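Much of our argument rests on the idea that a fold can be written as discrete symbols. Part of our work consisted of pairing the sequence of a single chain with a tokenised description of its backbone. No coordinates are needed to read the tokens, only the vocabulary itself. The record that follows shows the chain in one-letter code together with its fold in token form.
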Amino acid sequence: MHEFWTFASLHHGVFSRAEARTYGVSDDQLKRMIARGDAIRIYPSTYRLVMHQETWFARARAATASTNGVISHRGAAALWGIDGFKFGRIELTVDYKKPVTRPNITIHRTRQFDLIDAHELNGLPVTGASRTILDLFAVLQPSHMQLALDAALRMKLVDWPDLRNVLDAHSEHGRDGCGKIRAFLDAVDTSARVPDSRWNRQVASAFFDAGLPEPRLEFEVRRSDGSFVARVDLAYPRHRVAIELDSVRWHHNQKSFEADPRRKNALLLEGWRVLTFTWSDFTNHRDQMIATVRAALDDL
């Protein structure tokens, strides 16, 4: 029984009848556990030890154990730690031949279950990182998809060849919607730097949506001899305008307190104007922030 308790503990207290048998728990022993109140039935042939709380992870584990499905889409993104995703409604992908339903759980059926590249994260089966990104394309708006893709690339969960390979594999098997995804990837500049933060991308998008030229992200300013001056959050190189996004997390420490003025001085000496904005500027004074950038670009 020791191996069974260990297995259950590593899987949020949730197990199937078949898993219990694998670890030496007979059907009679399981019935006695239920009669004593040590375990409760969640779904057909799926149980939870009452000593474990009913958390999001326990509910997700029960859903996967009872359907042989995997956590996917936004739930998978949260498990991979992709910025911007939380443990909300559980999303599950199952083989299309399984006509299952679960209350308060979104179930996706796929004819490409063999391509999910399942991993186990935090005791839960989850779609592989590249498959997760592919699935997100089907449920997110383009702007949100760009943020998710940035985060996955920044974390090195995926790279551009990974995404192309997973897209090609699914296209060969006839997945609907691959044309839309391919068009998105074809339009992306894969040589561009991935922004250091979600905020950088959001600000760049806000400028573009307001009719400003699209800024360069994580731009390296160099002198005429090629020597490095500084890397800035956003830049309009033709206008020699640099934009720095000042966050408490990255800039309010002794190292940044001393380095930031030196960087700005070096940029000024090279003929660059430096505009600095805070999170409050972006959230509470966005129109003013955009007007300031527009004035700097117009002042040639």
Observations:
- The mean pLDDT is 91.
- Residues 60-187 form one domain.
- The chain has 14 helices and twelve strands.
